[in-house]
Amino acid sequence: MNPAFAYTVVYVKDVAKSVGFYAKAFGYAVRRLDESHRWGELETGQTTIAFTPLHQRETDDLTGVVHTPESRRDRPPIEICFAYRDIDAAYKRAVESGAVPVSEPEEKEWGQKVGYVRDLDGIVIRMGSYVQAPKQD
C-alpha cells in the first residue's frame, strides 16, 4: 500500500500571523495553533497545510538552513495551489485580506481559470477553478 501524503510544511517568519492570513485570505479553518506558535495547521482536506518557523532546531541543526528569496524577483522552489468554484470571488477575497496580487484570474487553454498572488512570505499561491474532465464521445 502506498503511503498517504499527509502534510505540506510551509516555513514562515511568523506562524500565528501566517495561519491567520491563510484562514482569512483563502477560506480555511484553523485546525491547530500550538501555544508556542511554532506549529500551526489548517483544515484543508486529505493533505494538511502546516506552518513552522524558518529557524528552529529541526531546520538549522538537523536538516539544514531554510533559504528564503533575496528579492521579489526570486521565488521559493514551491508553489501552493488552491481550487475554487468561484475563482474571481476567491481571488478578490485573498487580495482584500492582504495577499499581494501577481496576476488576476484568466482563462487558460486547458480549460481552467487561474490567478496568482503572493502570501506574507512571498510564496506564490496559484488560485484556479476546478478543471473539468474531458467529455467522452
Please tag this protein with its features:
alpha/beta, 4-stranded mixed sheet, 137 residues
Secondary structure: elements and pairs:
Elements: E1 7-12, H1 15-26, E2 29-33, E3 40-43, E4 48-53, H2 57-63, E5 79-84, H3 87-96, E6 100-107, E7 113-118, E8 124-129
Parallel strand pairs: 1-4, 5-8
Antiparallel strand pairs: 2-3, 3-4, 6-7, 7-8
Can you summarize this structure?
Residues 4-130 form the VOC domain. This protein is of the alpha/beta class and 137 residues long.
Q: What would you say this structure looks like, in words?
A:
This protein has 137 residues and is an alpha/beta fold. The chain has one domain (7-129): 2,3-Dihydroxybiphenyl 1,2-Dioxygenase, domain 1. It has three helices and eight strands. It has a four-stranded mixed sheet with strand order 1-4-3-2, covered by helices on one side. Strands 5-8-7-6 form a four-stranded mixed sheet, with helices on one face. The chain is globular and about 55 Å long. The termini are far apart. The mean pLDDT is 89. InterPro entries: Glyas_Bleomycin-R_OHBP_Dase (IPR029068), Glyas_Fos-R_dOase_dom (IPR004360), GlyoxalaseI/FosfomycinResist (IPR050383), VOC_core (IPR037523). Residues 4-130 form the VOC domain. Pfam families: Glyoxalase (PF00903).
